[in-house]
Amino acid sequence: MTMQADIPVAVPARTRDTPLRPPATQAARLPLVIGLGNLHLCDDGAGVHLARQLKATLGAGAAVCMDGGLMSLSLYPHVEKASSLVLLHCADTGRAPGSVDVLQGRAMDGYLRETRVRSIQERGLIDLLDLVWQRACLPVRRALVCIQPKRREWGEALSLPVFQALPVAANLVGALLTSWQDS
Questions:
Q1: Which partner for 35 in 5, 48, 49, 57 could form a disulfide, CB atoms 3.0-4.6 Å apart?
Q2: What is the mean pLDDT of residues 94-118?
Q3: Quick check: pTM over 0.70?
C-alpha cells in the first residue's frame, strides 16, 4: 500500500476582476422552470421536451430547468427555494393544436381551479401548489406555459404542430424570465 503526502497547492490571489461565486443560497433562488408531462403519450410530453430544450439553451445562471414528469409533491423543496416559477405543460385550452398560451399569476391559478377534466399532471400540480401556498412560499411571479395538444395517445413522437410550437414557447419563456429579472 502506498501513501501520498499532501502537497500544498498554490491558489491564485483574488483580484478585482475575479468574479465572486454566488453563495449557495443565492444560487438556489434562481427562477425554476419545470416541464410536466408523460413522454410516452405523444404531445403530453411537450412540457418535458421544452424543459430539456431550455436547459440546453438558457444560461446556467438564468434558471434551474427540471423534468417534472408526472409531477409529485417531491418537487416541493425545489419550488420552495425558487425566486419565481414557470411550469411548462401540454394543456387543453380549446385552441388550435400547437397554440401557446402564457398564464401568469392569478390567471394561472384560475385556470388550474376551473371545473373540468384534468390530466394527472394538473391534479399533482394543484396538490403541490396548495402545499406551497399553505407554507407561504408560493412565488409571486409564476406562470403556466400551455401548448395545445393534437394527440394524446401511446407514442413518443410529438405531433408536427406541437413540435413546431416548442421554439415559440421557448422564446416566450425567455422573454418572461427577462421581464421578471428587469422588474
A1: 48
A2: 90
A3: yes
